[in-house]
Amino acid sequence: MNLMKECIICPRNCKVDRTKGNRGYCRETDKLVVARASLHMWEEPCISGTNGSGTVFFSGCSLGCVYCQNFNISKGMSGKEITTERLAEIFLELQSKGAHNINLVTPTHFVVQIIDAIIISRKKGLNIPIVYNTSGYEKVETIKMLEGHVSVYLPDLKYMDENIAKKYSNCQDYFSLASKAIEEMVRQTGEIEFDENGMVVKGVIVRHMTLPGYLDDSKNIIKYVHETFKHKIYLSIMNQYTPLTEVSKHPEINRKITEDEYDELVDYAVDIGVENGFIQEGETALESFIPDFDNEGV
């Protein structure tokens, strides 16, 4: 069965025939499109390490946030069409460069081809963890397909309030679906594990990037994650929100979050007992932290 003939891989359930060149919400057909494949140093320390994470940026996105920092690729405006076999080669090339892992960024709509590429590359010697780096807007059925192939899940948990989710990502059902998907990720991987060098080898790290003016929703998300998963997962609280030109239509979020806002959120996490996690320090909300999507390594 070709899952892209009537595509329901992501929660948008477009049901378009991507095999005939049709494009759904993700803006992609069944042809793999990759915009960059390189060693990336700006992930959590246990993912980037000293050598970098072998990061593969896929073109297109099934979520499409109005504030997306990678809008050139999420809107399908950049990238190079490749075969599944070439993707497997890219994984091996990144491993040969010393990558600690293979980091799949915005992979949901290409999950079928990615699984095939993982199988091919494993047979040819790929032996580092696979990181599934996702917006969190996933179907449990799709995440179940990845069992045995993905070692580390790196999902966002963007919103709890359905009105905020609707306003900025056009998905009122975001939290109900993302929370179930994360539960499945934790079921698959169990409690998070690290190697002797502090690199994550198995488990789930939930990311939350707070939006300006929505501190209460961020606190609710952190409380939910902590109370639901406790020590099983790590939480990454991010302050890198960067308002680019496209955000001008939404003046209420057309600014960076303040230091006081972020400190209040981190203090809240500490107060409720969060111990396993990451915070960001310094000037992370800069466009210089957004890589060039110039087909490097593709």
Automatic annotation (TrEMBL):
Keyword Transmembrane helix: no
InterPro entries in the record: Aldolase_TIM, MJ0674-like, Pyrv-formate_lyase-activ_prd, rSAM, rSAM_sf
Signal peptide: none
MF terms (GO), sorted A to Z: iron-sulfur cluster binding; lyase activity; metal ion binding
Cofactor field: [4Fe-4S] cluster
Domain Radical SAM core, first and last residues per copy: 56-169
Binding site for [4Fe-4S] cluster: 61, 65, 68
Protein name, as recorded: Putative pyruvate formate lyase activating enzyme
Keyword Methyltransferase carried by entry: no
Note on how the cofactor is bound: Binds 1 [4Fe-4S] cluster. The cluster is coordinated with 3 cysteines and an exchangeable S-adenosyl-L-methionine.
Keywords: Iron, Iron-sulfur, Lyase, Metal-binding, Pyruvate, S-adenosyl-L-methionine
Source organism per UniProt: Sedimentibacter saalensis
